[in-house]
Every structure is written in C-alpha cells, then in structure tokens.
Write a structure and sequence with these properties.
The protein has 18 helices and 13 strands. The chain is α/β, with parallel strands linked by helices. Among the domains are: about 180 residues, D-Maltodextrin-Binding Protein, domain 2 (3-Layer(aba) Sandwich), CATH 3.40.190; about 120 residues, no CATH class. The strands form two sheets. Strands 1, 2, 3, 4, 7, 8, 9, 10, 11, 12 and 13 form an eleven-stranded mixed β-sheet that branches. It is globular and about 85 Å long.
Length: about 450
C-alpha cells in the first residue's frame, strides 16, 4: 500500500512539475465514477485553462480513511454523495470552513438542509434512494414491479435482488440507514434481514448493482437514484422507483484541512454551483438532481424535481448525527449477518418461506407456531437500539482497513455475532425442514391426514 501511495505521489509531482509554468494543479478525492467526474473535469478546465484537475478515486469508506490517516498524498477537495461521510470528517477535524462560496437559492429539500449549517461542506446535487429494475427481466420471470422496501421482503423476489455492501459503498450505507431510521432499529433490521434472504448477490462496489440489473444477472437493485435515471436515459430497459416518503439528501463537496490549493478549490466549487455546472448534471451519463431549483426549467422531459415532491410532515427527517455515530457499527453488523453469511441466511429464509406458503391455507396452529419460532430465530438481533444509539458503545467500532487491525473488542464482538448467526440460521432451517417433512408425510398417499 505504501508503495502504491508513493507511486501516486511521484506521478502527481512529476506531472505537476512538467506543467508548473503553465497550470496550477488541484487534487480531488472522490467516490464518483469517471462517467460523472470527467464531464465536470473537462468543462472546468475549458473555463479555467490555468488549472489542471487530478482525480483520486476511492470508495467512500476508503476515502474517509485516506483523509483521516493523514499519511497519504494530500488532497484539496473531497467530493462524494454520502453526507454522513462529511460529518465524520468534520467531527475529526479534517475539513476546513468554506468562505466566499455563492450558494444556490434553496436552503432545504423536503426539510433537509442542502448545506452544512456550520459551513464545512456544501451540496452540489441532490440524491434520492430507491429501487431500480430491469423491465424485461421482470416480465421474463413474471414478477410484479416493487414499490416499497417491504415489497422486497416477499419470497417471490428470492434470488432476484442485488445490493452492494454498505461497508464498501457510502450510498448503500445511506440506503441501509434510511431503512433503519424510517422503520426503527428493530423493524429496520428485520426488513434488511428478510431482503437479505432474497439477494442474488452482494456486490463489492455500488456500480456493480446497476450493471447487474442492466445485464440481467439479477432483476432488481437497491441504488442511489442516478444509477436508475442514468440507465433509463441511456436507453436501458430499466425503471426506477422512489419508495413512499423517500429521503432526499445532498451530495457534497468540502475543502480538506491543510489544502494547498484552496483558491483553486473554491473556483471549482463555484463552478459546480454555477448554472453551467448545474446543467451538466442533466446529461444522460450523469442524471443527477441539481440543488438549484431554477435550473429544472432546463431539465429533460420526465426528469424528477425533488423540490416539487410532496412532503410528509409526520415523517422524521434523516438524522445525520445518528448515522455518523453508528456508521461503522451498522456496516460491521451488515457484513457479519448478511454479506459474509449470505448462503446460510438465504437457505434459512428459503425454507421458512416455503413452509409458510404451505401452511397458509391450513389451520395447524402447532406447525405455524414452529415456523413463527424459526422466523424469530433469524430475526433475533445481537445489538439493541439503546446500544446502537450509545456513543460509548458505537465508538468501539472502526472500518476494517487492509494492513490494520481493529480493536480486540470489535474482533470479539464480530466473532460472537458470526457464530451466533450461524447457530440461529441453522436452527431456523432445521425447524423449517422438520415442518416441511411433516407436511410431505401428510400429503403421501395412503398416510392418515
């Protein structure tokens, strides 16, 4: 790893030296794919020929570590979708306040602040989170279009859903956190666990989900909106749905503390927020929602406008501080109970769903009680809501970084979760298998009912 960062540094330094007389370099760390950052890079450099952008691409969790560790080649700007990532960096003192940035006229979207009230980062786009699907795939498998997170719990979607690991994708972490906050800690995890039973795969990067849906490797994906909108704009047989009372959150940019090119960084931020910069978001290969409400007059036909979405005053706003506080805990739980235990989880849910379907028309209260017990075994959760909201507890968890060990407390906790999950999933599967066996025997000709 050290060698890799050294080589990056050498590349940037030597390239910078070659252009030192002509152009000032600006270094941006981003989780965005090149399909998003390249159009901005080209447009900005055309308007600012004295500045050359260098882009370092990292997934969100790795980008947080890159900045926090402070041992890598320094960067000027951090540019990403997940607002809780910016809160983590702000809390750890790795961002510096922005000055003289002309912000668009809107302050909020569906009640949520577009910019950091403390002035450490600004929103340049708005992100919604939801469900995309391949229409041809759904028709082929005779599946209905999903409309809500709860729809994805239904057994008809078994092996038809894709998601990325929240520990490797900041946008997926937000989807997980949105479900947890919308439904509450306990019911939220029940929802996630049952969706987990229907997964075809957990991808390593967030863009693996839209790619898998487009290619028909699976039919449905949990994604940030621009993946679905972009696929549709590019002619793919894809649709995207915002679940009811969806959360709309800003995608942000921030100046990293100690940035050596702060003047150039401010010029780039101003460009993102300018009318020209905002219009780039409408391009089919990007398909992101601008933060300037006035720009929507130039939007493509049918393009969503979050400023016209109906709001629900009863729905709680997204709690960014709560998400920040339990960020690594949530990721660790998801990995230990779903990502790394996917085969066992799917097997348990498959057997439970089969038994529930066979029992649906029967009046056998004993067998139904057995299956209810099996479901409870899968749904049992090793961390309480009070623990998840306790900073003293959640601060014990950190990101797993290559070459670095997490605390012994976290290691032991994760080992306990892993062994407990295997035990519970196996016990639930055995109960469901026994119920199915009894039902098969009853259906055998010649046997008493």
């Amino acid at each position: 790893m050290i060698i890799r960062f050294f080589l990056i540094g050498v590349l940037l330094l030597t390239t910078g030296m070659a252009h030192a007389q002509e152009r000032q370099q600006l270094i941006i760390l981003t989780s965005f794919p090149d399909t998003i950052y390249q159009p901005f890079k080209r447009a900005f450099e055309n308007k600012n020929p004295d500045i050359e952008l260098f882009i370092l691409n990292r997934k969100t969790s790795a980008a947080i570590s890159y900045i926090q560790d402070g041992v890598n080649y320094p960067v000027d700007l951090f540019w990403a979708s997940a607002p809780d990532a910016f809160e983590i960096l702000k809390q750890s003192g790795k961002l510096q306040k922005l000055h003289r940035v002309n912000r668009p006229p809107a302050d909020k979207v569906l009640g949520y602040p577009i910019n950091d009230p403390d002035g450490y980062y600004v929103g340049f786009a708005i992100s919604g989170y939801g469900i995309m699907w391949n229409s041809d795939y759904l028709s082929r498998y005779k599946l209905p279009k999903p409309a809500s997170w709860d729809d994805l719990r239904k057994s008809i979607y078994a092996n038809h859903i894709g998601i990325s690991a929240p520990s490797r994708s900041g946008t997926t972490h937000l989807i997980v956190e949105i479900i947890l906050q919308s439904k509450g800690w306990v019911e939220g995890w029940r929802t996630l666990m049952e969706i987990g039973g229907n997964l075809a795969t957990v991808t390593a990067r967030s863009f693996g989900v839209p790619s898998g849906v487009e290619q028909g490797f699976f039919g449905i994906g949990l994604v940030i909106d621009f993946f679905g909108l972009r696929s549709r704009a590019e002619g793919q047989p894809v649709e995207f749905k915002y679940p009811t009372f969806t959360k709309m959150l800003p995608a942000n940019i921030a100046l990293v503390k100690g940035a050596e090119n702060s003047s150039e960084a401010n010029r780039f931020i101003e460009f993102l927020l300018s009318d020209d910069g905002q219009r780039i978001l409408f391009r089919p290969g990007i398909s992101r929602l601008p933060v300037n409400p006035e720009i929507y007059r130039d939007a493509p036909k049918g393009f969503p406008n979050p400023f016209t979405f109906p709001s629900n005053s009863a729905a709680p706003l997204f709690d960014i501080n709560l998400s920040k506080t339990r960020y690594h805990l949530v990721n660790a739980l998801f990995d230990q109970l779903i990502t790394f235990r996917l085969r066992e989880l799917k097997e348990a849910w498959s057997l439970v769903h089969r038994a529930e379907k066979k029992l649906a028309q029967l009046q056998d209260t004993d067998l139904k009680a057995d299956i209810a017990k099996a479901r409870t075994l899968i749904d049992q959760f090793p961390v309480s809501a009070s623990e998840a909201n306790n900073v003293k507890f959640t601060s014990r968890f950190a990101r797993h970084k290559p070459g670095f060990a997490v605390s012994s407390t976290q290691t032991q906790r994760e080992a306990d979760w892993r062994s407990d999950a295997l035990r519970r999933y196996d016990a639930a599967a055995q109960i469901a298998e026994r119920v199915l066996s009894i039902l098969r025997e009853r259906d055998t000709p010649g046997r008493p009912k």
